């Protein structure tokens, strides 16, 4: 499988006054096309920091970030933002939808900076929402008129509408009941079956056991890369 992104000996050190926190300690990690990977570890282990590095939301203190063979570590903020918009989709625990906008307007947001005409944006929004397991009847509604599980599927539609190379999901089922979590995870499984590369930060072993690979972090270091127990994947709805 072709490599989509890679971290090489990445350190991330936060300093506040005289206090130094080493969130990542020389992490090297590769993401290949078609991966479905879970990142697990206790609170404070560096999971979200690792996801932020992969998503180009933060810069490493040292080390390199390679996207499709290109070292992007030293690029300008505008160049990095352009790569992030075109290559990476994000799904968050809190959904991060804008309640004053309709579902349609939320999903089309990643397409607006690209100058895509409105009629094409609408068509792509509808396609993405259906791929995410949503319904066209949601389009004129505001996010707060939907259930939590429905909002997360809207967030997934927003993440995939720009046809990114990778989806990064940070505790995407953390705010959902079991039924909604099952629907959201089944959406990720179907998208991965269709070829989309997905990385999920989770504390939930049932979610992790539905992936293809589990990366275990502890104290800013990758402690192990494990095979999931596929027989424990109870979340697929079909």
Automatic annotation (TrEMBL):
Q: What is this protein called?
A: ABC transporter related protein
List the Gene3D superfamilies: P-loop containing nucleotide triphosphate hydrolases
GO cellular component, alphabetical, reads: membrane protein complex; plasma membrane
Molecular function GO labels: ATP binding; ATP hydrolysis activity; transmembrane transporter activity
The ABC transporter domain extends over 5-237
Q: Which UniProt keywords apply?
A: ATP-binding, Nucleotide-binding, Transport
- List, alphabetically, the SMART domains matched: AAA
Organism source for this protein?
Desulfurococcus amylolyticus DSM 16532
Domain of life per record: Archaea
């Amino acid at each position: 499988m072709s490599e989509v992104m890679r971290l090489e000996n990445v350190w991330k050190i936060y300093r506040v006054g005289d206090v130094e926190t080493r969130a990542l300690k020389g992490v090297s990690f590769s993401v290949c096309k078609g991966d479905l990977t879970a990142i697990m570890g206790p609170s404070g282990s560096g999971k979200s920091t690792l996801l932020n590095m992969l998503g180009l939301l933060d810069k490493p203190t040292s080390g390199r970030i390679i996207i499709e063979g290109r070292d992007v570590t030293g690029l300008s903020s505008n160049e990095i933002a352009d790569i992030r918009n075109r290559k990476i989709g994000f799904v968050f625990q809190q959904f991060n939808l804008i309640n004053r906008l309709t579902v349609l307007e939320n999903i089309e947001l990643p397409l607006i900076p690209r100058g895509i005409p409105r009629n094409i944006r609408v068509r792509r929004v509808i396609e993405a929402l259906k791929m995410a397991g949503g319904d066209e009847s949601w389009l004129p509604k505001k996010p707060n008129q939907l259930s939590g599980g429905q909002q997360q599927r809207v967030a997934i539609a927003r993440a995939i509408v720009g046809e990114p190379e990778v989806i990064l999901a940070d505790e995407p089922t953390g705010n959902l009941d079991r039924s909604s979590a099952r629907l959201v995870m089944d959406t990720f499984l179907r998208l991965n079956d269709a070829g989309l590369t997905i990385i999920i930060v989770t504390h939930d072993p049932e979610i992790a056991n539905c992936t293809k690979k589990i990366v275990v972090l502890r104290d800013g270091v990758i402690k192990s890369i494990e095979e999931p127990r596929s027989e424990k994947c109870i979340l697929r709805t079909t």
